[in-house]
Amino acid sequence: MSFELVVAILIATVPLLVIFPSLFALTTWLERKALARIQNRRGPNKVGIPCTRIGLFGLGQPAADGIKMLFKEDIVPNGADRLFHLLAPILALIPAMLVLCFLPLDFSFVAVWDESIAKDIKAVQGFALDGAVIFFFAITGINTLSVFMAGWASRNKYSLLGGMRAIAQMISYEIPLVLSAVVVVMMVGSLNAKEIADAQMGWNWYVFTPWGLAAFIIFFIAALAETNRSPFDLPEAESELIAGYFTEYSGFKFALFFLGEYISMFAISGLAAVLFLGGGEGPWVAVYPWLAVGWFLAKIFSLIFVMIWLRGTLPRLRVDQLMAFAWKFLLPISIINILISGIAWHLREQGAAVTAGVWGVSLGILYVTAVGLNKLNRANVKPREYKYAE
Amino acid sequence: MVAPNYELIEQDGLETSLLEVSMGPHHPSTHGVFRMDVKLDGETVVDLKPVFGYLHRNHEKLAENMSYLANMPFTDRLDYFNSMTNNWAYALAAEELVEIEVPERAEYLRVIMAELTRLVNHVSLVGFFVNDLGALGTPLMYAFREREKILDLFEEASGARMMCNYFRFGGLRCDVPAGWLDRAREVVDQFPKFLDEYEKLLCENEIILSRTQGVGTLSRELAINAGITGPMLRASGVAYDLRKVDAYGIYDRFQFRVPYGEVGDCYDRFMVRMLEMRESVQILKQALDGIPEGEIMGKAPRVFKPKPAEVYGRVEGPKGELGFYLIADGTPKPYRYRVRPPSLINLTVLRDMCLGQKIADAVVILGSIDIVLGEVDR
Amino acid sequence: MSFLGGGIFSGMAVTLRNFVGSYFDPDRLTTNDYSWRPEGQLPQSAGEYPREEGEQLSDATTVTNYSRNFPMLLHDGGDNPMDAIRCVACQICERECPPQCIYIEKDYGEDGKFIKRPAVFDIDVSVCMSCQICVEVCPFDAIVMNSQFELSTPNRFDGLLLRREDLLKSNGYYHRIHPEEAAQRDQRMAEEKAAKEAKKKAAAEAAKKKAEEKARAEAEAKAQEETGDKEEEAQ
Amino acid sequence: MTPEITFWVLAFIAVCGALVAVVRRNLIHGVFALMIFFAALAGLFLLLLAEFIAAVQILVYIGAVGILLLFAIMLTERVTGDDGRSIAARGWFWGLAAAVAVFVFLLLPAIQEADLPESAQSIQPSVKELGLKLMAPYVVTLEVLALLLTAALIGAVAVAQGAEVNKKEDSDDA
Lengths: 390, 378, 235, 174
Hints:
The structure holds four protein chains of four kinds.
Chain A: H1 3-38, H2 61-71, H3 82-99, H4 115-124, H5 132-153, H6 157-188, H7 193-199, H8 210-226, H9 238-241, H10 251-276, H11 291-313, H12 319-346, H13 352-377, E1 387-389
Chain B: E1 8-11, E2 14-17, E3 19-23, E4 35-41, E5 44-51, H1 59-63, H2 72-76, H3 83-98, H4 104-133, H5 138-158, E6 167-168, E7 171-172, H6 180-202, H7 206-212, H8 220-225, H9 231-235, H10 242-245, E8 258-260, H11 266-290, E9 309-317, E10 320-328, E11 334-340, H12 342-347, H13 350-354, H14 359-369, H15 373-377
Antiparallel strand pairs in B: 1-2, 3-4, 4-5, 6-7, 9-10, 10-11
Chain D: H1 2-23, H2 27-47, H3 51-74, H4 92-113, H5 126-135, H6 139-173
């Protein structure tokens, strides 16, 4: 293995391992701050530079939290499976970190001094794999195991319930997640993340087409469920299961879970950006190639902000409603969406009139399907009129 | 609903054992130190046993060993969200013992305080309830912002925000400070605007609708038989409100309506409270307009030593009928003192409402009952 | 619900409005910045919590003119507050206190005679529930509510047991923390005092009159007696 | 050089995983060991530049089969294997003999006859090729498989529904 190759591998991977965990710290701060503002609080605003009174809007909070987590006692419940209790958070982190390499974050601009290294970097990047998207889904699926492991190993009934919920939920929502990605894969004719992003150059983002929009919404909802975000945070439902599968975790093991969860959030938002939002495309990217990374991260962050916003707004679903939503609503509509996009693909480039017609009809079909499925599933649920006694 | 006799479920030759979970005494959503021993079949509740008493403070026996007045601050601590209505119920009972006339201004202020308390209770209950549904505290924070304004009013009037200890036998401890009524009017005028926002946030939310409708249905018959009172009874379709029935104080002078539901599920209980807040605002506006100047204390004896008698004083508290039963024996201490706590009595139907529901619903149903453990355990 | 997911979107609109609004409209904020030190400094250690009177008054948002926290004993000024203490150690508050957190011992002089003031007056603030019953039952307006709420201490036994010296505050301080209430109380006291004095005066006059009458009666009686004596003598 | 080291490491992990899966009495541990084996196998596929098969290996075996096993185990009692019941096989000699016989008579000739290239060659572009193959020559097979799976799915739904209907009838009787 040549020295250049080692350098290339390092350049291709190390930024991922540095950027995302530090973004994780920033995101915890952002989430707390945004949630606080949504709730009309101030959020963290005291912790800044140590030994001074400079608050820096509480930006020191993640560091303080990290230090606290490190020094907390690591408690393993009596009778728990010690090995699995230890392995679960690690297993939660590994796939989360692993899938990051399937996001088309091209750092080859770093190697300005050597053309060949830039070439090597391109050769070892994970997203250039032919089946990058499939790999992404395959490896995210492993996350389920870690959740189950944690739930089972803790020997706590809440943990176990949380773990069971997590498995059911993650498996169910993986299907609409993959099916909505299929739309884009069909359109591009490739599973390569780089090619998918390149196919959307020139503002041809898939989110701007009816089927793409529907797929994006389905993808986003399923992504919320996959990453256990509100309103699908049932596995860690605080008001029901204390903290779900990580009830018995403390200290750094808990921090690892937390880290894994946020990295999964980044990864899945990144995939959404690749599939529907044009990857790293944005103004001035052609002039400054490194801006692509910036735009990509900006898209990830705007998706994450929406996640935080939803978390600040919505209560959570119930288990049966959650499953019904996946199987009776998202699944049929994503299958119909695939059908529509297949037809649309065949009718492409046939003039503006045909395109407009296809768009109109597909929008209509999708909306009617959604409304119909909603009526079918929630027939009895509607606001009521109330009477008054004088 | 008849409880199915589950011990070991046998189904298609498969034997499944039940999962017993002890939710509480410290659990994020048991509203205090309360425990639900739940038996689960998967996630479905097949049996539930409420366990309480962790917060027992010997309230009734304590009251029998101190003077009538000295017990007043302890009534604050029954249902610590609604100290004003607790005070009122106790004062009503004691006033009946010695037959004191309450001055006009004091009566108006009592109504104002009680209705402000109702706003505080309902608005934060709705917040807690949605919190139990899984919202991350956002409605609760909005509710607390409004609650804070009303608590500021309480602090100005009585000196304390929650443990007001403001009512006295025959009137109120002191008059409200100058300008208080204007500030109260401002808060009351602002409140409907907040309610609009609150309703927009919650009342049409599809997730809340499907989480609460058809969950924890309490039938009219069971509600009446179990002695349920307050918004919970009205949600089950009985328009029974002590403010109308007893018309204690001067409630007969105000125009207000009593909303009631039909189904008796969590959604009805939630909505009845939302609608009641609007009616409370109406009462408050009328009371603030009509309040006269004048004395604040009636002619109460300096030493409270009632003749032997038995009385029962009750008010429509925010949680239901709050009653105080007193037996006087001619000494400065009550011979027997008994509280009818609405929280405890409303809690008795918890099991009936939870059977067959999911575990997540059990939490929501508990939240919709609106209990305060200080009152349940006393 | 006009369209699919409409309720969720209207809810999100509300939260977004609050998110943006919280930056521009301070009225929206649920909490206020908690800083009660005059210079905005936070205490660096437990010993730095304020002990001086008036120190907690810098923040208008947490301590209003009407708030009450724990009782204090009033004195009417002077170099030695114990000389001007209003409390006469009658122990009514001790009897009436619902959680029974007051402990009083009467003061006796060297000659064993009761001086009208407490030798020991302790309030256990870890027990006190700030109910103000003691203030209401006090016939001498000697005990009123303080609004000092920052009583953190490194010692939970002695630190939370307020002694007579900790409780003694001047009437001026009372006027500063609760101006309206203090003014009312002073007015009422003055009225009561005036009434009392008037009553005393009346009583004194009545007594004088009575005494005069008595004197006259006595004189008459004496005169009568004398005459009687004389008569007796004469007989 | 490097691929060989990687191969041996992965092979070692795979064998260890398989052994633990067989030997451990704790079922959950066994399943997770099995998954380690699957993961190592996926790594071996990657080493052969068969990335699609590697992905499918993870997706299907770890993501689906493993979870299915976990679900099945969760429905049983005594997952930890703490009870004293002996499950040690008695006729271990004959088992070993059978395994060796299978290896010698079936696998060894196959291995010897297989003409493996010195280094693996990637099919460019592998996934696209696979997709085209599936859609053109093997489309009938694919459709038949899809039909079969749909039938199985409907059957599963019918079984689940049937149980529920029975339960309802039971409760009606009661």
